[in-house]
Amino acid sequence: TILVLDFGSQYSHLIIRRLREFNVYAEMLPCTQVISELSWKPAGVILSGGPYSVYQDGSPHVDHDIFKLGVPILGICYGMQELAWINGKGVGRGDKREYGPATLNVEDQSCALFKDVDHSQVWMSHGDKLQSLPVGFKTVATSDNSPFAAIADESKQIYGIQFHPEVTHTIKGKNLLKNFAVNICKVSQNWTMENFIETEIKRIRKLVGETAEVIGAVSGGVDSTVAAKLMTEAIGDRFHAIYVDNGVMRKNETVTVKKTLDEGLGINLTVVDAGDIFLSKLKGITDPEKKRKIIGNTFIDVFEDVASKIKTKDGSDIEFLLQGTLYPDVIESISFKGPSQTIKTHHNVGGLSENMKLKLIEPLRELFKDEVRHLGEILNIPEDLVWRHPFPGPGIAIRVLGEVTPEQVKIAREADYIFIEEIKKAGLYRQISQAFAALLPVKSVGVMGDQRTYEQVIALRAIETTDFMTADWFVFEAKFLKKVASRIVNEVDGVARVTYDITSKPPATVEWE
Ligand code: XMP
Fold this sequence. Notes:
This protein is of the alpha/beta class. The chain is built from 14 helices and 19 strands. 32% of the residues lie in helices and 22% in strands. This is GMP synthase [glutamine-hydrolyzing]. Keywords: ATP-binding, Glutamine amidotransferase, GMP biosynthesis, Ligase, Nucleotide-binding, Purine biosynthesis.
């Protein structure tokens, strides 16, 4: 195992990710980790980049005991400056910030870190730079702007690089990380999803023990389903999945969830039809944030109520709560947060676990979305579900603009169903990151047969994105849009006009509310 100490760079999590791409396992801990408190011995240590300056008061520093481990060390960006700071302090503000691509010149071809990495593009992102070589180090590579783009003390197997090998813009970055992990640290390349499942099941069994029971909410989405299936593999019926129908789910959702999770995957599932409760609380509410709050709070009430009625085999209380938290949700919580050195712990349970005194289990907390999909495939979760687009917790309530009534939900739901059905038929579903129909609270004049109509407008939205922070609208062929528009107007009562949203994010968001 490689230990990654995180100094808070926006790229830190990618280091772990890249290592896993060649089957090397790594664990990330805050840069302030006390080495003597580690319960395992790393085969090598990577110090990440970070937004600070090593010479400033209050900036984070690593426990010097990492040098006593006697294992290879690689410092990236801030991590390299930290190594230099510890070994001679030759770090200062660069005359220019360097951000973007640069060409790497390897000066010392014999350096094990740079096997097959010469003269390629690397990605720089730094304001500070080395002004002199730290004691015991030599220059291994340069770039136009960085005379010390890479340094090494090969006798101690300590390496520093100014650029970021973990981002894909560094063309040979993966080779470099592989050189470090496999050739220099000599870690074995045995991380596979199959043995992830095996170790995770063992870990869950040990944590939960012989008798304790676990609950978890499932939404019909990929993360919660994969987490629930994994839990079922580990402890069978002692895991209780709860699906709450909040009245603003997609068409046929409840029936499908029942069929897939309960009948298909053998998950011990309780379905709660709470649509009326949610819709009555949403009556008269038009503000998007209020809608979100109402749905979130009502969900907690309903979930807790159902959970309290679940009978465990030995009559004791449920002890654990399963959450399908993924790695990107965790990143924030483990990063070093400024000079105050407070480290947030992750809680997206909205007060649930505190009220219920449940212990959290998060079996997916090390995985990225595409890895969860891969895991789902291995666990025999149907392909349709594994590749499903994300769906917001507040559901169709934030896709019915204005007041949410059962009639309005029905219109939005039917239009959405047709849109998605056509996307799937056209073979475009996987190319698109998310697609849906929103119902606008305006009426527009139309004509059908000889009749004048005066009905509502549907806005279709389809986007492509990698991280949902920025997104672009998907370019359909005109023929496709024509067909969807015609079907919606003909088949959905109450809609007289269909539009397609051609705004990117930013400035727009993905959802309309
Ligand atoms: P926006 O609209 O913020 O959406 O650009 C980005 C992604 O987040 C989803 N989204 C939500 N998901 N609760 C959720 O669980 C919410 O309140 C919520 N709002 C937006 C949205 O569907 C998109 O995938």
